[in-house]
């Protein structure tokens, strides 16, 4: 994009875009939604590919050659017939676009980042992709008006010295600002989706080579739109445009790293990770009494081992200055993954994906959109905190990978299994389940928060960061309900108050019979390949004293020759306000060639060999009643 001749250098950018196309297209289609909302599709352009799963939209960034914290940025769609504001003009802004005012004229940036290397600021717009780009321009029946050009105009503003300094006061006085900079996009035309040709509507069976067949000036197949620049002769294979498969491979490399890296290799980052997770599940005002991650690291027999690298190269990860940066970048990805995964937007998006479960073409599009969404989340985080890209971080990880990565089918299998669970959970309306506490397990009924570890932890094998974070998402806070089923057996419901997915929690029938629980407390689906094991089989028994309950959860290997059993024993002593949760994980041998998917739960559990099990983890976790912090 060409910069405006202005005091501030400004540029429209597409973060994470490697398709070498212009940021803006010469023509956009517009669809009408309820409430007179008119959404521009595929704006500013489809990247990495067109989305059929919902209205196609993406984010846009604005770089400004200033790091003045007093400036703000807004976007506004304008007809070319409307003059842009002059630099130095003093204006008032009242019609700001929000989730409650989706047709607001002024579109505010959702976040800003300081680009240290260039002393610039990056403003992001429509970062979460769930609102879309509304443009309320009213066309007429005249040809000249219907084909009139439009622009997206970016304004960098600074609060007027005479304006109120507080946000509340600014809202009441209309928010007076001084225009510091203006940037106008190349012109484009806006066309009704219903009037567009089949190719421009981008149906699933159209190809990129299909030419526009719209009438007259709406036909842009031979317009003067700039062509993508040819790759430089010095362009390496890693720098070529990324396909969705390449993006998926990059994400898989980072996940592979987090899955195989023990806690001890990231010990200096653990306080920040635990604090971030605690805020997401407990609230910003809650203080964690004791560090769970610190207890696990202290108990680890291999505190400084990194399974990501071969033994001869492990020192490079923790010592060499160039490679030492990798762990920090991986942690940034972890922090962003936690923020995104626990967000209501993610749960809402995934609920929308579930509607395409029985439409195979749409299901494939939904999966690609899901991968692209995660890529954008991680890319934006890396861009905000370093100059590294997702592809560069993946290459640096793969350079020292000591074991094969996850297969491509793992991501698809997880996605489809989770869609199925969310679909079933939505159909069952699981948001609020009755938990009558009038049975023998009633002392456990309620909301419980992790307090501390009692008596230390016995850990025989290193635990990966991914395993620990997944467990913490389930057990850091537990909403426990107790009930009776139609046969009179006690039933235990365990659910995380802030789940990853909108579905049911774990349901355990306490009758000593091998069964399958459908979902983990955090909403993740069971009976699918998760880090090389299939979880879901359990046996639950009531035990004495203090009306305790013990649940044994079995984890069967996909291709290994050993399985795991996790014993969880929960109890509340009479007169106590604390609940203890004793957890023991043991490993036992099994045949590596067994096909667990063809067996019933009883058949799978018959392969359990208690006489040959070896403990690998044991600890007692103490919980207290959860206190809501205002």
From TrEMBL:
Lineage top rank: taxon: Eukaryota
Q: Where is this region: Disordered?
A: 219-243
* Protein name, UniProt field: Uncharacterized protein
What organism is the protein native to? Aphanomyces astaci (Crayfish plague agent)
């Amino acid at each position: 994009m060409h910069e405006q001749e202005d005091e501030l250098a400004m540029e429209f950018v597409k973060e994470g875009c490697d398709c070498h196309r212009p940021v803006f297209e010469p023509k956009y289609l517009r669809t009408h939604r309820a409430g007179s909302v008119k959404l521009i599709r595929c704006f500013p352009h489809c990247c990495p590919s067109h989305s059929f799963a919902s209205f196609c939209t993406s984010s846009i960034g604005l770089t400004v050659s200033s790091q003045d914290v007093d400036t703000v940025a807004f976007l506004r769609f304008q007809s070319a017939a409307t003059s842009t504001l002059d630099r130095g003009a003093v204006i008032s802004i009242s019609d700001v676009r929000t989730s409650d005012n989706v047709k607001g004229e002024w579109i505010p940036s959702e976040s800003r980042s300081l680009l240290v290397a260039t002393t610039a600021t990056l403003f992001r717009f429509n970062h979460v992709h769930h609102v879309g780009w509304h443009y309320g321009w009213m066309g007429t029946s005249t040809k000249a008006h219907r084909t009139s050009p439009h622009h997206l105009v970016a304004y960098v503003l600074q609060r007027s010295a005479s304006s109120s300094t507080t946000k509340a006061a600014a809202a009441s006085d209309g928010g007076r600002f001084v225009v510091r900079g203006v940037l106008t996009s190349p012109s484009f035309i806006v066309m009704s989706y219903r009037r567009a040709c089949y190719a421009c509507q981008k149906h699933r069976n159209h190809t990129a080579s299909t030419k526009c067949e719209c009438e007259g000036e709406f036909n842009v197949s031979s317009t003067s739109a700039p062509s993508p620049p040819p790759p430089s002769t010095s362009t390496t294979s890693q720098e070529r445009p990324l396909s969705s498969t390449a993006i998926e491979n990059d994400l898989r490399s980072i996940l592979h790293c987090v899955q195989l890296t023990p806690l001890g290799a990231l010990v200096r980052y653990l306080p920040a990770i635990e604090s971030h997770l605690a805020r997401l599940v407990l609230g910003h005002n809650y203080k964690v009494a004791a560090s769970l991650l610190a207890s696990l690291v202290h108990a680890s027999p291999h505190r400084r081992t990194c399974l990501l690298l071969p033994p001869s190269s492990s020192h490079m990860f923790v010592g060499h200055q160039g490679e030492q940066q990798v762990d920090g970048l991986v942690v940034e990805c972890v922090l962003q993954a936690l923020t995104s995964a626990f967000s209501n937007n993610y749960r809402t998006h995934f609920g929308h994906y579930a509607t395409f479960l029985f439409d195979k073409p749409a299901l494939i599009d939904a999966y690609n959109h899901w991968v692209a969404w995660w890529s954008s989340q991680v890319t934006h985080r890396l861009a905000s905190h370093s100059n590294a890209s997702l592809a560069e971080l993946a290459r640096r990880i793969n350079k020292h990978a000591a074991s094969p990565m996850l297969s491509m089918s793992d991501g698809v299998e997880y996605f489809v299994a989770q869609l199925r669970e969310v679909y079933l959970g939505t159909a069952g309306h699981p948001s609020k389940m009755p938990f009558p506490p009038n049975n023998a397990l009633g002392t456990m009924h309620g909301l419980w928060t992790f307090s501390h570890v009692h008596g230390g932890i016995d850990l025989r094998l290193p635990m990966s960061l991914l395993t620990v974070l997944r467990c913490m998402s389930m057990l850091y806070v537990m909403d426990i309900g107790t009930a009776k089923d139609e046969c009179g057996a006690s039933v235990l419901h365990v659910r995380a108050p802030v789940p990853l997915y909108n579905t049911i929690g774990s349901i355990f029938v306490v009758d000593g019979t091998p069964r399958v629980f459908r979902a983990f407390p955090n909403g993740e689906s069971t009976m699918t390949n998760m880090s090389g094991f299939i979880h879901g089989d359990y046996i639950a028994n009531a035990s004495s004293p203090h009306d305790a309950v013990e649940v044994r959860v079995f984890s069967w290997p996909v291709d290994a020759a050993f399985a795991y059993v996790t014993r969880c024993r929960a109890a509340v002593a009479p007169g106590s306000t604390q609940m203890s949760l004793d957890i023991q994980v043991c490993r036992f041998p099994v045949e590596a060639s067994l096909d667990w998917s063809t067996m019933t739960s009883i058949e799978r559990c018959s392969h359990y060999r208690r006489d040959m099990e070896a403990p690998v983890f044991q600890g007692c976790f103490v919980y207290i009643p959860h206190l809501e912090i205002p």
